[in-house]
Each structure stands twice: as structure tokens, then as C-alpha cells.
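=== RUN LOG ===
request id: a7f3
mode: sequence -> structure
chains: 1
length: 473
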Amino acid sequence: MPHEDLLISERCGSLGNPIKYTRQGQNGIIRHREIGQESVADTLLQSVLGFFREVLLPHGYPDSVSEDYFEYQLWDTVQAFCSTITGIFTTQAILKGVGVGSAEASALSATITWIMKDGTGMIGRIVFAWWKGKSLDSNCKKWRLFADLLNDGAMILELSIPHLTHLSTEILCLSTLMKSMVGVAGGATRASITNHQAIKGNMAEIAAKDGSQETLVNLIASFTGIFLINYFTDATTQWIVTFLLIFLHLYSNYQAVTALIFKNLNNLRMTLVLKSYLAVNAVLGPERINKMESVCLGFGTSVEKFCGFKIILGQPLGKTLRRYNSDELKCLTEIYKDKKYLIVPDLKTRIIYVTFEKGETPQEVIAGFYHAVLLGLATCIYNRVTLEIYSKRQLHHSTPITRLSTFMKNYQNNGNVGNNLPAPLLQAFTEFVGQEIEMFFTALQVNGWKTDSHCLYVDEWRAQWKDFDKKSL
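=== RESULT ===
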């Protein structure tokens, strides 16, 4: 029997069957594919599953996508299935409402209605992208869920058209306006999610495979919808079926967005991370923070609740600078001359503005936000303002709050309550914060957070406050 010696083995991804290359005889090489002891039926099933995996899933799945890919796509498939079937019921309602099948309806009136509907949608897409486009990345989950809520609201309006035929044009225009907002919010957030899922530079392929999955689901749902619309002909029954589908659609969307585990920081995730870190000196990992993150617009904790100030990044300083004289502003810019950001507190409005030099890095944005939070806490301590997070500090455990408290004990506010930190204290505080920022970044990286990118909301205003002999605004 010839002697065999393993030379090399390979497999495609973690799900492919291993292939081994062994020595045969003196110089021969033989190729073996390991299939295992499987029946013909099992082998055929594996081949079919492998074919669909290649057609519908990104190449190299699951190693080529983020760990939340499967759960998100599963729920996204369910919601797409429900949405397509509901769309069939609404299409029937729209056609009835515009007079299809009625001898009294004219082609001209139906055409005018359709043009008005499409025109409203076009205007809506432009206005909504201008109005909310900047916040879609920073609140991706919230806008994704909001888009589906709005889509279901539009469908309910369309279902009512046969019962309100005298208002069919108005209802169609309103529902189309809502769906135009859905298209912008849903498309933009889907792009952000795809970018998150593409961990091997395969964003285009994931987007393409997502389109294939959706097409297949829509095809199956369309045939299912045709059966249901013929089986449930009674209007009341159709409403009941539609509302059940809408409920399942919303539940699936909620499960989909809560399945996402983003590893970069937006305003809400940063707030949740800081709330834990400041109090107990522990940074919670992305999985726990994402589960705690609210996915509904208008809900979720705010950094203002525990540091006493609202933090605003990259917005104009004009209003708050009116509360400073030239000497105070000059002193402030001197303190931040070695920083890539400038922090300007406004005690009257309880807002801390953080402005950046042009070309700031993600790390500088995160550092500026954290610095501003610590400044808000220090200002509250200096002015003897009691904060919940300060009252819950761990007295026998070193945390940012206890370290800040120890630092601030060396400085007393003998003046009126409501003052900014005086220049000597602010200078010393800035040096103290430098070490805190280093520890914070170490804790972030150790616990799996990405600091080379962020989704914090930063407006486009940039400032220059140093080297005016070399640079110009």
C-alpha cells in the first residue's frame, strides 16, 4: 500500500468541506474532499443548502459578516414578507378608490390623481432628506424603526380609500408623502447597517445579496398575497388579516433593530457607556450597551441628566460667546492651544459647546465629548449643584467621579453660585482630564469598542483659535 503524508488542507469559509492534499508514493499528490459518513439524501440536502447559501448569502458567510447578521436578516425577511402581502391588500384598495372597475370613473381623473400622488412623493423625498438627513447615521436604529411605523401608517390610510372615495386624492397624496419619508429613512439606514455588517470590505456584495434575499421573499409573498386576497374577500376579514400582518411586521422590525450590535459610539451609546464608567469605572461592552439602547425616537437617557449640561458638537459659538469678554475668551483659547477641540460652556442655557479644528479625527471627537462631560460635572461640583451620579459614587472604589471629587476638593468656590471654573482651575482641570481620557480610551478598546470611527452627531462648523500668524480662518 503506498505511503500517504498530509501536505496541505484548505476549505472555503468555516462551512465548507475540508479538502486535503497528501503525498502519494515518491512525488505524487492526491486530492481528498472530506464529506463524512452521510447518506445520499443527506449529501443531496447539503448540496441544495450549499447552492442557496452561495446564491443568497455573502461569500464566506458567516466569517465575512458581523455576528449579528443572521438574526437581523432573519427578522428583516419576516418583516419584508408581511410588508409585501399588506402592500397587495392596499394596492387593491387604491385601485378601487381611484375608480378601477367603475363605469363612472374616467382615465383622465385617475391619471391626474396618480401624477399628484407621485409629485407629492418627489417633493417629500427632497424635503425629508434636507430636514433629517444629518441625523440618520447617528440614530440609525431609531430611524429604521420609525420608517416602518410610518410605512404601516401609510398603508392603513390607503386601506381606508374605498370607504372615503371623496377624499381619495388627498389620502393618496398624504400616504405617498409618508412613504417618501420611509424610502429616504429606510434606504439611508439600510446603507449604514450594510456598512456595519461588512467586516471584510464586502459592503457592495452584502447589499447585492440583500437585494436577492428581498426579491425572493417578495416573490413568495406575492403568490401568498394573491391566494389570501382571493380567499378573504370580505372587507372586514381583510382588515383583520391586514392588522395581524401589520402587528407581525412591526414586531419583526423591532426584533431586527434590537438584534444589531454596533461597535462604534453614537450619542445614546456614548451616554450609556459614560453612565456606567463614571460611576463604577467599568465600560460595558457593545452587546450589553446595544441591548440597553432605546430604538424609539424621543426615548432614551440623556447625558444632561447626569452631567448637568447638554453637549453640542460642531455648532456655531456666536450665541454663547456673547457671554464672554475678550480677556475671558483669550484665556480660554490659551488653555486649549494644545488641543484639537475648544470647549465653551454656557451656564445660562446649561449647554457646553465643543468646536473642532478642521480635519478632526474620530478619537478627537470622542475625547472632546468626554472632556465636555467631565467639565460639566466639575462645574456642577464647583457651584455645589447636586447630581444623581455624584451622589451614587463608590466611596471606596476608584472611579472617574471619585477622582474628580478628590481633585475638586483642592478648589473652593467662594463667590456666587453660577460661575465658570476660574482660569487657574480650568488649566489644572484640563491637565487632569488628559490622564482620564487616556484611561477611558484604554477601557473602550479593551471592551471591544471601535474608536477609529463614530456616529456622534457633529455639525459642520469648525473653528481656528491658534497660530493666526500661520493660518487663516
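=== NOTES ===
The longest strand covers residues 4-10.
The mean pLDDT is 87.
=== END ===
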